[in-house]
Automatic annotation (TrEMBL), chain A:
Its main location: cytoplasm. Belongs to the eIF-2B gamma/epsilon subunits family. This is Translation initiation factor eIF2B subunit gamma. The keyword Repressor does not apply. CDD domains: LbH_eIF2B_gamma_C. Coiled coil: none annotated. It comes from the Eukaryota. GO terms for cellular component: cytosol; eukaryotic translation initiation factor 2B complex. Residues 333-420 form the EIF2B subunit epsilon/gamma LbH domain. It comes from Chlorella vulgaris (Green alga). SUPFAM superfamilies: Nucleotide-diphospho-sugar transferases.
């Protein structure tokens, strides 16, 4: 997320519609009946920041604990470290950057009913991959998701680049005579896992480090032959334990969860996989498809972050994602103590934070403006995200940009498609297009 | 609507002497069924033209039949034309001939002349027409159907194909025919134009295609295309940039099956099971039809069935047939004027017109052609096929899977033309000779029939190496192939117990110092090991102590671990069988009393069950002596020797009993973690360049090896 996090602010505390990103996944968990949450953070700085925020500002009803893991630790290793803390039968693992209005409760129920080992939330792509790809060429950066019976996941391939070939093992073709492989779905990184099974998988497969590149494909791949993943005896034990639990829905309430910075949280209820009636132990990898039209996005890239900010403010999403009523006349959010000059134009689907000053003839369109910002006379802000305390001189134009907190622009600055780090200042009269400022330090 | 019906002679029908389109389905030849189906599914009443393309040799026969069956005159607006194509054999050639004749204009339905079906073609044709209106490049619609009930027996998945198609437009993207179990990789370039691809397995090509006229042009342009499914379809898919597109249509319900090697007898069973309604024996459309359906069996009114005979559900006794006292028919299909003698037992067999089985015969899973004759007390083993006019002599036994025909099998050196030359003169000769033999006389000119196959007074030549091309009667699974593998769908469950033993640590060094088995003296050691084991059982000595005892023996005799393992294993094998004479009386009670009959499935199962019990009890001990892969390979080698009753492994009087069960026993050991994948594969590799005789057991294990190979790849 460079340069937005250049000052060390963890991603989950970046503002989305002027509130930390983390509030969205926490609300999702709370509404599903999850009680206990572990927030797994990379490094001391991030852990401290999240802890601070939780004690000072968070007012939800969850019991949240922050756990620090080393920096640059692969996600699955982070998961390994906290698995001991998970004591419920199932738990939710979700990424801290999910902004979703889908019902996690429904996903948990699906998981429970199917006695699945894993249930994955699938969102829909904003733009179908086929529209961005030439005919006869493989699409890039898509999730290939193979579904049998509409909801059982039998194939999973995630790659940021191009996948040339999809491999379908013979046992899958035997078992599932009808597989639909789709590219219009995206893994939203909201997972429900069967705790014991996952523990066994993690213990037996030290090599798994990445979540969507390794762990999820691994579970999907070995669902028909769990013994090849966790070993004969373990597979048998797991199958035996998967006798349908009597607790069913009651489990939902007494649950617990954990979460992490760039991944991870969890909750719980009963469940298990298909060891019914002594049938061969098989894992059921279930999917929960985000209902059409429901809001479900991730702020895991700069683009995604900008999109999320914009989209949560659109009139059709704002009410249920933000739980605030818009100004009914203008379809926007303007804090009460904003001082506005004359002929200021704030378009629909915009948000202006408290204590802002908008100069004469300034205009804000489809943008989020943080608290304490100053927008100079005659400046225009379009399709952008301004964090707190951003100062724009007179006659600036800002298109499609993300300006982190404390950024200041001199008079007549024109920015298009730029991302500015916290505290950066641009001299008067400068023009930038498609820049990251300051330029990212080279990494080895 | 226009239809082109192809009546090509198939390879598989040659020994039988009946072209596939003339194979009787109930009382009618297959082509009759095809024509009725077409007539029923035709859309518009007017202008229906059907072109029957037959090779010139069978065109006359066909025309005669059509005349007799009343198809020759336009009936309900259906006009039938017979095109005699000179010597055409393949689909491609037949269609090129049609294109040359230039008679077919517009879209047409292409179907084989031996299809039995009742599925509704209308939706498929409408979908095709709609696509043609939208896109002139839509070349062809392939009709697929789910694997039907009994026509394809479990285990023979040869017919299924793997299809990748666009779930919305139904455009075909990939077709893998005769798809065998193996990893499938799908190129992702097909996702460039669509967001979803449906991958279907378990569908079969129904052999029905709805084609645009361009398909004929395409076939003429590519004169090397022989078959639609295996040449034209891949060709078009590979050159998608040329623009032609193919589509699939899945028949949701209804029955479609083509007379082909493995399906024929199954199709008859389906017909008797009324899956093919309205084409069932008691609904022939013929007013004089007198077949009655009663309690699951069809018996024609004019047939004679002796009161004390037994006919079970799923049988059909055709017009004028005679079933004598004490005969027993189990799921058998009898054509016209067949005769079953007293006390004969027939199981799941099919008899064409005027076939005759005399008294006290045993016939199971056999196919008897027209006027085939089986004399009294003869025995036809599973999977026998007797072609037209053949004779099996009294009290003779035809071994399983044999195909007997009056046509002489072509020997390797003989070319096609020479065969024709000889047939001209010889054919008549053979026919007369066979007729004379059938009548109970002696032929005037002796013909060198294969008497070892059909008996001294039999008539017929054995066709070997037909393999799967023959009209294989569906084997009653295990009895025929000796396989105890369950149907494929339960495969996963079956193998879940298998877990490979990770016993490779220090011992995987390259020293493959397998002792030469020939140098081992027949010895005391084996007896001592065996006796120790027996004593341990009788006295209830724990495994640990038994290991100490055996180790003591091993050191005293300076033996290897593999030697111990080998003899322990052999002792376990012999414990599954009645005691041999050399066993001491005090250990007699450890052995089972009952001899097992390995000819029957029950017996084999029982033997395996016993061995399973032994392995369960002793695997802990055995594992202690199987220290490395090499030891395990040794074990396999000595098991081979045991099966061959090698003199080197004394006291193995019944080793041959296990030889038929070799793969199953290996599988058992694998399941019990006595043998690991690597060892079994290493054993097979070792035998790779061995002589044919030495490879015998490797070949028995082919399926197991394939599975292991497969599993290993998967685990990678």
């Amino acid at each position: 997320m460079y340069p937005l996090n250049a000052s060390g602010i963890p991603k989950v505390l970046l503002p989305v519609a002027n509130r930390p990103l983390l509030t969205f996944p926490l609300r999702m968990l709370e509404e599903s009946g999850v009680a206990d949450v572990l927030v797994v953070c990379e490094g001391d700085v991030a852990a401290e920041a999240v802890r601070d925020w939780l004690t000072t500002e968070y007012n939800g009803g969850l019991h949240i604990e922050v756990i620090r893991v080393e920096e640059e630790l692969p996600p699955v290793d982070a998961l390994r470290q906290v698995m001991d803390r998970v004591r419920t039968e199932n738990f939710v693992l979700l990424s801290g950057d999910v902004v979703s209005e889908t019902s996690l409760r429904a996903q948990l129920l699906t998981h429970h009913v199917r006695e699945a080992v894993m249930t994955v939330l699938l969102g829909r792509r904003r733009v179908p991959a086929s529209q961005e790809t030439k005919a006869g060429r493989p699409p890039s950066n898509v999730d290939y998701i193979g579904l049998a019976d509409g909801e059982r996941m039998v194939l999973y391939a995630h790659s940021p680049g191009i996948v040339k070939q999809l491999i379908i093992p013979p046992s899958f073709l035997d078992r599932f005579q009808d597989i639909e492989i789709r590219t219009d779905l995206v893994d939203m990184q909201v997972y429900v896992f069967h705790t014991l099974t996952l523990k066994a998988v993690l213990a037996a497969n030290e090599k798994l480090k990445q979540l969507e590149e390794q762990l999820i494909p691994h579970i999907v791949r070995y669902q028909l032959k769990p013994r090849r993943s966790v070993g004969e005896t373990e597979a048998a034990t797991l199958a035996a334990r998967h006798s349908p639990s009597g607790g069913n829905l009651m489990g939902l309430e007494g649950s617990m969860a954990d979460m992490s910075l760039s991944s991870s949280f969890s909750s719980a209820l009963g469940g298990g996989s298909g060891g019914v009636g002594g049938i061969k132990p098989e894992w059921y990898c279930c999917t929960y498809l985000a209902p059409a039209g429901s809001f479900c996005q991730r702020a895991n890239t700069l683009q995604g972050y900008a999109d999320v900010n914009r989209d949560v403010l659109s009139p059709q999403n704002a009410t249920h994602t933000l739980r605030e009523e818009m100004n009914p006349k203008f379809d926007n959010f303007v804090a009460s103590n904003v001082s506005m000059g004359s002929r200021v134009n704030v378009s629909p689907a915009s948000m202006i934070g408290p204590s802002c000053e908008l100069g004469d003839r300034s205009s804000v369109k489809r943008s989020v403006v943080g608290s304490g910002c100053v927008i100079g006379t005659g400046s225009k802000v379009v399709n952008s995200v301004l964090h707190d305390d951003v100062r724009l001189g007179p006659s600036c134009t800002v298109h499609n940009c993300i300006l982190s907190s404390g950024v200041s622009l001199g008079e007549g600055v024109r920015l298009r498609d730029c991302q500015l780090a916290p505290g950066y200042s641009v001299p008067a009269g400068a023009e930038f297009t498609e820049e990251v400022l300051p330029v990212a330090p080279l990494r080895d | 609507m226009q239809a082109i019906v192809l009546l090509h002679d198939e390879e598989c029908s040659r020994p039988l002497g009946t072209p596939t389109w003339a194979m009787p389905i109930g009382d009618q030849p297959a082509v009759e069924m095809t024509l009725r189906w077409l007539q029923r599914s035709a859309i518009d009443e007017a202008g229906r033209r059907v072109y029957l393309v037959a090779s010139s040799s069978s065109a006359g026969q066909l025309s005669a039949y059509l005349q007799q069956a009343g198809w020759a005159v336009p009936w309900r607006g259906m006009v039938i034309n017979v095109l005699a194509a000179p010597g055409c054999l393949s689909e491609g050639e037949a269609l090129r001939f049609v294109a040359q004749e230039d008679i077919v204009k517009g879209d047409f339905v292409l179907v084989s002349g031996s299809v039995l079906g009742n599925a509704d073609l209308l939706p498929a044709m409408q979908a095709h027409a709609a696509r043609r209106n939208a896109d002139r490049q839509a070349l062809m619609t392939l009709l697929l159907h789910r694997q039907s009930s009994s026509a394809t027996m479990p285990g023979t998945i040869s017919g299924t194909c793997m299809v990748a198609a666009d779930p919305c437009s139904k455009q075909l993207l990939r077709l893998e025919q005769c798809w065998t179990r193996g990893t499938t990789s799908l190129g992702t370039h097909i996702f460039g134009e669509r967001n979803a691809v449906a991958v279907r397995s378990g569908y079969q090509l129904s052999g029905v295609y709805i084609c645009a006229q361009d398909a004929l042009v395409l076939l003429s342009d590519n004169f090397d295309y022989q078959s639609i499914a295996s040449d034209l379809v891949p060709g078009v898919l590979a050159e998608q940039e040329l623009g032609s597109t193919l589509y699939i249509h899945e028949l949701a319900r209804g029955y479609v099956e083509q007379v082909c090697s493995s399906a024929y007898v199954g199709m008859l069973a389906d017909m008797v099971g009324r899956w093919t309604y309205p084409w069932v024996p008691d609904n022939t459309g013929d007013r004089s039809g007198s077949c009655r359906f009663n309690r699951g069996t069809y018996v024609d009114a004019s047939a004679f069935v002796a009161p004390s005979s037994r006919i079970t559900k799923g049988s059909l006794v055709g017009r004028g047939s005679r079933v004598d006292v004490g005969a027993c028919l189990n799921r058998c299909i009898l054509g016209r004027d067949c005769h079953i003698g007293e006390s004969s037992t027939l199981q799941a067999s099919c008899l064409h017109a005027q076939a005759c089985v005399e008294d006290n015969c045993q016939v199971s899973f056999a196919l008897l052609g027209e006027r085939a004759l089986v004399r009294s007390h003869a025995h036809l083993e599973t999977g026998t096929v007797l072609a037209k006019h053949t004779v099996v002599d009294a009290a003779h036994c035809v071994s399983a899977g044999t195909c007997v025909s009056l046509a002489q099998p072509m020997s390797a050196g003989e070319s096609e033309d020479e065969g024709e030359d000889t047939s001209a003169e010889q054919h008549g000769l053979i026919q007369t000779a066979a007729a004379a033999l059938a009548a109970g006389g002696i032929p005037e000119t002796a013909v060198a029939f294969h008497t070892d196959t059909v008996g001294p007074f039999g008539a017929g030549f054995a066709w070997k190496e037909l393999g799967s091309k023959a009209f294989l009667v569906p084997p009653s699974l295990s009895t025929f192939t000796g396989q105890l593998e369950p149907a494929p769908d339960s495969e996963a469950g079956d193998f879940t117990k298998a877990r490979r033993v990770k016993s490779l640590d220090a011992s995987t060094t390259d020293d493959v110092s397998i002792e030469d088995p020939g140098q081992r003296p027949t010895d005391q050691f084996k007896c001592e090991v065996s006796e120790t084991i027996l004593r341990c059982i009788t006295e209830g000595i724990s495994h640990n102590n038994a290991v100490i005892e055996l180790n003591g023996l091993k050191i005293a005799e300076d033996r290897t671990f593999a030697d111990c393992a080998r003899y322990v294993f052999i002792t376990m094998l012999s414990l599954c069988l009645p005691p041999s004479s050399s066993v001491k009386p005090e250990y007699m009670r450890l052995f089972p009393d009952a001899q097992v009959d390995i000819c029957g499935r029950e017996g084999r199962l029982e033997l395996l069950r016993r061995l399973n019990g032994q392995l369960k009890a002793w695997k802990g001990l055995l594992q202690r002596f199987l220290k490395s892969n090499d030891d395990q390979v040794e074990l396999l080698l000595s098991f081979e020797e045991y099966c061959l009753e090698d003199a080197d492994v004394p006291g193995a009087p019944c080793g041959s009993l296990f030889s038929g069960l070799f793969p199953q026993v290996v599988k058992l050991c694998y399941d019990h973690e006595l043998l690991c994948e690597e060892a079994i594969l290493a054993w097979a590799r070792e035998k790779e360049h061995a002589a044919q005789e030495d490879r015998r057991f490797v070949e028995l294990c082919v399926e197991l090896l394939e599975w292991l190979d497969d599993a290993e790849e998967e685990s990678d």
